[in-house]
Design the sequence.
């Protein structure tokens, strides 16, 4: 018994304590054939979810959610005995029938009879997920409110400051018109017209100071690897994608140079563009709900990152309007997302463009300068 | 020649002035230019204190006040003028978001308010309206003062006769009530008409009653 090892121990006499351990777990544990998907073992937690033992049934029809084929790290069907055990999946999945979320971990292991099986553990994380979702929504709401407040304050300040010179200009000009109608000479009106000009300049300076104020939150740019930007942005995007049942396809050209950018700001842009894409595909059929993220060189001096959705797209003239403030195809929202993205990219000396995609939907692409280019 | 007729003959705008109180140089200067261009007499002040220093109850016209001023605000200046029983109508110039405050001010007796940004036409209209009203009210007030002064000059007997005239009594009835001769009533009547500056019964009654002094009399 000593030298037969773990695997045979499961199959032989001493299975009782093991069964007790597995049965006591809150996590659902299962073993299934990698080829047929036939369930070979399920613990008590699995059975209570399933409503009885599922042994002999097909795993995909069971109560535990499974990753899509493309989401496996390695295709479990192609695993050789020599490579086992190895992890094939670790992620959070939604069981659409029950609305429950599970943290699923699967490993390919050698089963007692020598074939390759998948050993899975699924933990119900619905409650945690709900809490996280509520927190996220609250945070979003707070951020949105704060932005509105900041905008409102800015608008109010602008209105107050601009009122003075603008009404002075109107008063000066109206008085001049009245006097001209009464036959006043040009010399008599000249000083007043000059005062009106000075007021117009005052108004211009107010606008200028607001621009300077906005610039105070100056970003920090440095040599940043495109892979690093994508990696941390995609970590967030992936969670959102999974939640919405959207597949991600990432295509990064090898050997891209570093860009001169503020990593956090560019991540914000990517997140924003991805969310736009997700929203656009809300009503798209299952197979078309794919968001592509692509990075490649654009000439020698720029790197282009594109976010491509297969959603409803934007009608002709909409594309030009799209990057203007307050334009939105959504029923809710301020329409501030894309103009902010554009401002960020333009601050980086890049360009943000929107054009219709070849398979429907929209391609949002932006360029960032290569580090050496920016330094020159 | 009495004061009332003098005021009437003088006409409205010539004696009326517009007092502009605004701390913003451009706003103040441009308002003066605008109002003068439209034929108004204007005096400008850069703060509430400067205006209060020249204020007296004989000023005629209206006041244009900016709500937001350092030191005493437009509203505070208005309240101070109310304490002094100033009759000058006040127009408040309010900025962005001051509307609620302006409504409160209206309830307290501010003549009108105008919100920035305003068009010059709008401003001129409000000013004209205020000047017209001020002139009418001042005339009415002067007439009242005039009538009160005239009434004060009547003798006790003349006042008694006046009361009975207004009560609709005939000379004969007045003579009976006061136990004097009709002749004497006629004399009193002629004297009091002269003192009140009227020649007909109708104008006598109109003057005394419209001035609202009938009660004070009786």
Sequence:
């Amino acid at each position: 018994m000593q030298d037969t090892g773990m695997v045979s121990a499961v199959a032989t006499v001493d299975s009782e304590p093991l069964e007790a351990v597995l049965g006591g777990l809150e996590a659902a544990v299962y073993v299934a054939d990698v080829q047929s998907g036939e369930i070979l073992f399920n613990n008590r937690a699995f059975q209570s979810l399933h409503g009885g033992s599922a042994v002999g049934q097909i795993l995909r029809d069971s109560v535990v959610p499974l990753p899509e084929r493309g989401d496996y790290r390695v295709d479990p069907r192609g695993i050789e005995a020599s490579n086992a055990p190895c992890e094939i999946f670790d992620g959070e999945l939604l069981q659409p029938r029950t609305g429950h979320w599970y943290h699923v971990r699967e490993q390919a292991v050698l089963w007692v009879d020598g074939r390759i099986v998948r050993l899975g553990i699924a933990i119900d994380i619905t409650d945690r997920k709900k809490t996280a979702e509520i927190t996220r929504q609250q945070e979003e709401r707070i951020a949105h409110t704060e932005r509105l407040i900041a905008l409102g304050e800015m608008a109010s300040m602008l209105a107050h400051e601009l009122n003075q010179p603008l009404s002075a200009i109107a008063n000066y000009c109206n008085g001049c018109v009245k006097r001209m109608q009464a036959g006043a000479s040009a010399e008599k009106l000249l000083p007043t017209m000059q005062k009106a000009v000075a007021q117009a300049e005052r108004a211009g300076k107010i606008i200028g100071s607001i621009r300077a104020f906005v610039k105070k939150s100056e970003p920090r740019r440095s040599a940043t690897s495109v892979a690093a930007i994508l990696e941390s942005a995609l970590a967030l995007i992936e969670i959102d994608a999974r939640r919405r049942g959207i597949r991600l396809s990432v295509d990064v050209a090898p050997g891209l140079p570093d860009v001169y950018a503020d990593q956090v700001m560019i991540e914000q842009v990517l997140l924003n563009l991805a969310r736009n894409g997700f929203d656009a595909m809300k009503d798209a059929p299952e197979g078309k709900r794919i968001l592509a993220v692509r990075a490649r060189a654009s000439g020698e001096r720029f790197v282009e990152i594109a976010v491509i959705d297969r959603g409803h797209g934007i009608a002709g003239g909409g594309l030009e309007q799209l990057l203007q403030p307050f334009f939105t195809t959504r029923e809710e929202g301020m329409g501030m997302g894309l103009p902010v993205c554009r401002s960020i990219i333009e601050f980086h000396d890049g360009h943000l463009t929107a054009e219709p995609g070849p398979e429907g939907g929209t391609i949002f692409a932006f360029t960032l300068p290569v580090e050496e280019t920016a330094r020159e | 020649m009495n004061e009332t007729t003098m005021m009437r003959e003088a006409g409205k705008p010539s004696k009326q002035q517009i007092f502009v109180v605004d701390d913003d140089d451009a706003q103040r200067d441009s308002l003066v230019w605008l109002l003068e261009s439209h034929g108004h007499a204007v005096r400008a002040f850069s703060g509430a204190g400067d205006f209060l220093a020249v204020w007296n109850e004989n000023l005629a016209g209206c006041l244009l006040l900016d709500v937001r001023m350092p030191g005493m605000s437009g509203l505070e200046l208005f309240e101070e003028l109310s304490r002094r029983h100033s009759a000058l109508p006040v127009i408040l110039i309010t900025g962005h978001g001051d509307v609620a405050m302006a409504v409160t001010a209206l309830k307290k007796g501010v003549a009108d308010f105008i919100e920035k940004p305003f068009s010059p036409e709008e401003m001129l209209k409000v000013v004209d309206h205020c000047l017209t009203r001020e002139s009418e009210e001042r005339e009415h007030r002067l007439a009242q003062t005039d009538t009160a002064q005239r009434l004060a000059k009547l003798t006790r007997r003349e006042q008694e006769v006046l009361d009975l005239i207004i009560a609709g009594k005939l000379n004969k009835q007045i003579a009976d009530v006061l136990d004097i001769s009709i002749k004497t009533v006629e004399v009193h009547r002629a004297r009091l008409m002269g003192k009140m500056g009227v020649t007909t019964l109708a104008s006598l009654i109109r003057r005394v009653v419209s001035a609202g002094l009938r009660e004070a009399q009786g």
